[in-house]
Amino acid sequence: MKLTTNYYENEYAQFWIMDGILFFEYRPNVVIDLTIAHRIVADRIQMQKEKSYPVLCDIRGVVDSDKAARDYLAQSGSVLAKAVSIVTNQSVSLIMTSFYLKICKPSVPTKIFTDDSSALAFLETYK
After folding, report:
1. Is 117 within a domain?
2. Residue 3's pLDDT band (boundaries 50, 70, 90)?
3. Helix (H, G, I), strand (E, B) or coil at 98
4. Does some domain include residue 95?
5. pLDDT in tens, 43-68
6. Residues in domain DUF7793 (predicted)?
7. How far is the CA of 56 from the CAs of 47, 80, 121, in angstroms?
8. Domain boundaries, position 101
């Protein structure tokens, strides 16, 4: 396994690049509004240094988000992403995320998973 030192964190999330995949993990109990969504995307893009990656986005720490934030993340949140795996483990979150994907239609291939290994397998073809 090739490790890298590309790592960044802010008060809402932490993200790192390993083996050609960008891992993005929300901190526990995060509520996302439009301002926070802008900050998260800007920090991620800056860390990526203009290089696209497949993204594993772990949303298990998110407790709520507003519509403006979800809309922004569905479109601008996909900048420099080749594909996105969203990992969740809560039934309510799984239902909300499925609904979000149908309504907001992200601009890159995006799927929902309940385990990291399936999420990573989906992203392998986009490396």
Report:
1. yes
2. very low
3. helix
4. yes
5. 999 999 989 999 999 999 998 889 89
6. 15-127
7. 15, 13, 10
8. 7-124
pLDDT for res 92: 57
Q: At residue 82, does pLDDT exceed 90? A: yes
Element (H, E) at 45: helix 34-48
The verdict on residue 2 lying in a domain is: no
**Structural domains in the chain (count):** 1
| Percent of the chain topping pLDDT 90 | 64
- Edge-to-edge strand list for the sheet holding 53-58: 7-9, 13-18, 21-26, 53-58, 81-87, 110-113
Residue 2 — pLDDT band, cuts 50, 70, 90? Answer: very low
Using CA atoms, how far residue 108 sits from 11, 18, 27, 53, 82, in Å, is 26, 20, 24, 11, 6
Q: How far apart are CA 26 and CA 3, in angstroms?
A: 21
Q: How far apart are the first and last CA of the chain?
A: 15
Q: Assess if residue 81 is contained within a domain.
A: yes
- Cα dihedral value 72, 74, 75, 78, nearest 10: 120
